Every structure is written in structure tokens, then in C-alpha cells.
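Weekly modeling sync, notes
Attendees: S.R. (lead), two postdocs, one rotation student

Agenda item 3: backlog of single-chain predictions. S.R. asked that every request posted to the team notebook include the full sequence so nobody has to chase files. The rotation student volunteered to paste the first one in as an example of the format we agreed on. Action items at the bottom.

Example entry:
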Amino acid sequence: MSDAIIVEGLAKRFAEVEAVAGISFRVRQGELFGFLGPNGSGKSTTINLLTGLARPDAGAIRIGGIDCRYRPGAAQHLTGAAQHLIGVVPDESNLYPELSGFDNLCFCAALYGMAKREREARARELLAEFGLSEAAGRRFGGWSKGMKRKLTIAAGIIHRPAILFLDEPTTGIDVASARQVRQLIADLHRGGTTIFLTTHYIEEAERLCDRIAFIVSGRIVRIDTLEQLLKPLQARQVVRIACDTPLNGIENGLDGAFPGRAFTCPEPGVIRVEADGPVRVGAIVRFLEERGIEVAEARRIRPSLEEIFVRVTGIEADVMQRERGKP
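Predicted structure, as returned to the notebook:
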């Protein structure tokens, strides 16, 4: 499989801040590649560099086999030569609030040189596909956040690009709209579009991506498939026990009674058990109930990308959680 995107030694500094620190990676044709990291890690700067919205200080970029390095005095700036290959969906909508949804799509199509009949037909097709036909004639500025996000994605694919850059596509929208947007992304991927997705939603990356890169402070600290990322945890057993009565420090007694098992209380009334071997859930539940603790639920938890992210980056998952909904 050929590479749709090749990045080598890409760097960008803003004053004293090293936003992107000499990163290198490849995205295969037809792949959904996730760029995962907290706010300020360099995700959006990387997309801006790849799509020509910012000029790199160093490094090489190839998109669809086209050398996109900046050359002073050249006719094309950065990704100009590859512009027809890519679609870009920024983290905030770049559409015009005074235009209708239909007119916004037609305007974007015109920028790519599409003829009037073709762009109008394509706009109607996308409005129907994204469930936006009823709002097509209304001013875009009055649409909900979820609807705006969907139309912004539609504008990014109006010219049927082979490569799509999505910057935080579900940030700041409601749960139902986020679910719809993820489904749209999955459908585009199944249709063969190469997708470069930035997100700080760990479960979003886990659900959608073929491969994932972890970026922290402008540096890529790990790139791998989801299967390989989760492999170190496959043998590890994790159990979550929810209790209806106060624990009163019972986890301290559990440590002594069940050696080789790690007990923590991640939230009130909840005990988390981790072990490299089998966890005897029944024995732990009996131990708790014999000491007056009422157990409401005990269930095994499959290994998650969140655990790997914390191990690799050193950033606690709750940091990512606090960033939900931030612009």
C-alpha cells in the first residue's frame, strides 16, 4: 500500500514555544490515521503545516506523491500543487454565517473550479446525505453547533478529495451530533478516503482509527496500530466493583488479603482491581460482603487505549477529560 502523506523532520516554533519538534510519520493510502494528544500538544499546528495554513521552519512534506516543501519565489505555496487532492475541516467553522447552507456549499465548490450544474447537484447530494436538506435555505449563522459541524465536513469533501484532514471534528457539539459525525467519518473511511484525524477524545480514536500517533509537547512519542498498542495489556485483568455502602478504607485490607492484586478507589464507592493473572471476583465480593460492604456490581473491563495513553505519555486521562467541550 502506497503512502498518501509522508512527513519528515517537520518543525515549527512560535517565539519561545516549540509547537512541532521535528516529527516524522507516514499515512497510508485509505488509512484513518489518528493524531491523539491534549490541547496545546501540536495537533492543530501540524494540520496547518500539512494543509498550507502555516509555513514550517524545517522538514519535508509529500502529499499524494507531490513534494510540498516551501520554496521562496515558487509559483505554488506549500500544498498548492496538491490542493486538488485534499479536503480540510478546521476545528472551527470557516463557512459564511450570512449565506445559506446550500450557498455555502456551492461557493466552496466554485473555489475548486466545479461548474455550476455540477456544484449545485453535489451540494444537494451532500445536504441530503448529511440530513441537512430541510435547513439548506436557512442562514448558516442560525444553525445549531452539530449542524454547523456537519456542513463544515460536507464543505471539506465537496470536491471529493482523496485525502481529508479533520481537526477535532466532535469538540463542542452535543452527544447525538458527535455520534452522527463519527458515523459520517467511518462511512468516508469505508469509501476509501484517506483521513488524518486530530482529537483529544481517547475513545474516539479507539473507535475510528487504524493507526494512532500520540503527540505531547510537539513530539510524537508513539505510533502504532490499535492492536499493537493494546497488546501489552491483553494478559492484564481489570475488574470494577461498585458498592452501595461507604468503603471506609476497606481497600487497605484487600491488599493484605489478596497479594499480587492492585486495589484502588478511582471514585467514591468504586474499587478497581488490577492483576497480571486471573482475578477471583467471587472471593473479593465475599470478602467485602463479610465486612458489611454491599456490592451492587462487579464486572471485568477490557484493556483500553486510555490506559496505554497514560503509560506512554505520562498524562493522566482526567486531563483529557477536563478538555471536553473546550474550544
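Discussion: group reviewed the output briefly. The chain has eleven helices and 14 strands.
Action items: rotation student to repeat for the remaining queue; S.R. to check formatting next week.
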